[in-house]
Design a protein that fits this description.
With about 190 residues, the chain is an all-alpha fold. Helix content is about 80%, strand content about 0%. The chain is built from 7 helices and no strands.
Length: about 190
């Protein structure tokens, strides 16, 4: 049926087909048009540049994530008594507040007579603080070992004992000063 339809179509259009030769230069004009079209497509390919923006956004995101990761890795959490338990946190706060209060009181008692004893006490406190930093390192390395925790508490108590002893000695020095400065009335 299609064959009949196609044959009928060609029979109907028999005299209407253009069978003449094209004009002179037709082929050259056609080739010129093709070259012009190829040049335009080549220029559009050259003008299209690689779009770096999406890749830059991805790279920036990776740099930020990596820097956050490295920052978290380089700053390990340093444990102290407060990080072990809430009760020990309260204990640490108490000891710290007590030591600070006694250090203020000690600094208020400075005088030429007490300068040497205060300086010696502060050196001992400084050594105990260095020991405490070492204990914090041990706590990080070993974990929540009871011996390290007791040593940390003992360190706080030693600092408070030193401060109390020095304050008592300062009171004795002040009393001796008062007693020696009093005029003696002898009859």
């Amino acid at each position: 049926m299609q064959k009949d339809t196609l044959e009928n179509l060609f029979e109907n259009l028999k005299g209407e087909f253009d069978i003449n030769d094209p004009n002179d230069g037709h082929q050259d004009r056609f080739l010129d048009k093709l070259k012009a079209k190829n040049m335009v497509s080549a220029e559009t390919k050259k003008s299209k540049r690689f779009n770096w923006k999406p890749y830059l956004a991805i790279a920036a995101s990776l740099v930020i994530c990596l820097s956050v990761f490295i920052t978290n890795q380089s700053e390990p959490e340093i444990m102290d008594l407060a990080s072990v338990s809430p009760e020990l946190s309260e204990t640490q706060d108490f000891f710290t507040a007590t030591i600070e209060a006694e250090l203020k009181q000690l600094n208020n008692e400075r005088s030429p007579l007490t300068e040497q004893i205060i300086t010696d006490a502060l050196e001992q406190i400084h050594l105990l603080e260095e020991d405490y930093q070492n204990l914090k390192t041990d706590l990080n390395e070993i974990g929540k070992d009871q011996r390290v925790i007791y040593a940390m508490i003992s360190n706080f108590q030693s600092r408070i004992d030193i401060l109390n002893t020095v304050l008592e000695q300062i009171e004795i020095i002040k009393e001796l000063k008062i007693n020696t400065d009093e005029p003696k009335n002898t009859i």
